[in-house]
Structures are given as structure tokens and as C-alpha cells.
Amino acid sequence: TTTTTTPTKTGKNAADEAEVAAYTASNMHLRAVRDIAAGEELCFNYGNLSNDHFLIDYGFVEENNPFDKYRLANSKLGDAGMELVKSEADIRYKSSVLKKAGCLLDTFVLSRPKPDDGLACIDRRLLQFCAVVTGDEAPHSDLEADLEGLLLDVSLQMDAPIQPTLPLVRFLRAVLEQVLAEQPTTLAQDADLLAQAQHSTATATATATAPPANLALAIRFRMEKKRLLEAVLDRVRDEEEKLTS
């Protein structure tokens, strides 16, 4: 008898109850990590992966996935940062600093916040980007910009702590609020759409037109990204409250 474990669309059988003992092109052998009753569903951990990996590689989305990621486009920061530009000299200087510090990335990674870890859920180069953009006007020489950028790059590589300032967290909050506001739907609307998709699938007959099989999955994926964004935004708001109290 061959027994297999496959992911469902809700990821119900993704858990830490078994580990892969051996794997070949045609077979997978699992080893239980706890006592399992006869007839009980066998689950195992797919790995510490984001929902992007789960969706593409396994065909499911994990709710409240602690390892999920959100990639924030640099363009979102640029749009909001333009409001803080004080002069042409200021933008030239800060752009040079950010380039030397390696902070002009296409995207920055946001992670699901953990208890008592401050802003560790936010890419450190994103925090440094915000710190430079919200800093005082600095119409200095190109040489000074190069030097400051190199020093920032070294501090980032050495994992030197980045102390959040009130302008930094306010800028970051404005960016995250803008990203959420630009979403085509809200979480509440997504929940309604998901319920409709599930109901249509459950009641579809052989002659009726059922929704695409992956529609509910796509809605779940979108909802999880919004939940992650909202969790990061809540953390930023908490830091802002601390700085203003």
C-alpha cells in the first residue's frame, strides 16, 4: 500500500507532525515526530516558506503564515519621498548617499512582525532609506555624500542598530497607508468575495458554470498579503506612539 500526503487548498495538512526521512524521484519516506493514532491524518512541515512559495510549488496558502513576506516597491517610497524634498541640492545629496549605501533597491522585504521585536520586521535598508530621506537638508559636497553613504553601508553590513525617529516612522506609516489604500479591494470585500466563490463552487451543478478552481485560492493569497501589511503598519503605529508619548 502506498500512502501519500498532498497539500489541500487550505494547507490543513501542513504541520510539524512528520519529517522527511528520505526522498527520491519516485518515493518519499516520512518519519513521525510524535505518536500517531491508527487512521489519523499524517502531516509534515513544508518548510519555513512564504505563501508565494507555497502557492507556486504546492498549490495552497497558509493563513497567518509567520514566514510570509511582502515586497514593497521602491517606487512607492519615491512617490511619498518627493513631498519631503526641500531643494534640488537636497535630493541630489540624499540620492548619492542612498546609492553608496546600497539602499536604492527595486524592492524591500517586509516580514510578519514577532512579539517585542520592534521594527525588525522591516528591511534594514528600507529603514535606512527612510532615515536618509527624512533627515535634515544637507547640501554638502559629492565627496561628503560618498563618505556618508559608505559609512552607512558598513554599518548595515555590521548589523548596527538603526534607531527609529519620529519623522522616519511617520514617513513609513504614510507609505504603508498609501499602499493599502491603493489596493483594489479591502479585506472585508475580499472576505465577501471568498465566501461567494466558495458558495458558487459548492452549489455548482454539472450544467452550471462554476468559478475557476483557483479563484478562492487567489483571493486567500491576496488577503494574506494585506494582513501582513496591516500587521506591519500596526507595528509602525506602535513605534510612533512610543516616540510621541
Order of helices and strands: EEHEHHEHHHHH
Number of contiguous helices: 8
Mean residue pLDDT: 79
Structural class: mainly alpha
CA-based gyration radius:
23 Å
Shape: elongated
What's the end-to-end separation, in Å?
65 Å
Task: Classify the oligomer.
Answer: single chain
- List low-pLDDT spans: 1-12
What about the largest sheet? 2 strands, antiparallel
Description:
The chain is mainly alpha-helical. Helix content is 48%, strand content 9%. It is built from eight helices and four strands, in the order E-E-H-E-H-H-E-H-H-H-H-H. A hairpin with a 4-residue loop joins strand 1 and strand 2. The longest helix has 30 residues, at 215-244. The model is unreliable at 1-12 (pLDDT under 50).
Features:
two-stranded antiparallel sheet; single chain; disordered N terminus; 245 residues; mainly alpha
Q: In a few lines, what is going on in this structure?
A:
Helices cover 48% and strands 9% of the residues. It has helices spanning 51-58, 74-81, 88-100, 124-133, 142-157, 166-181, 187-203, 215-244, and strands at residues 18-23, 28-32, 69-73, 107-111. The strands form 2 sheets. It has a two-stranded antiparallel ribbon.
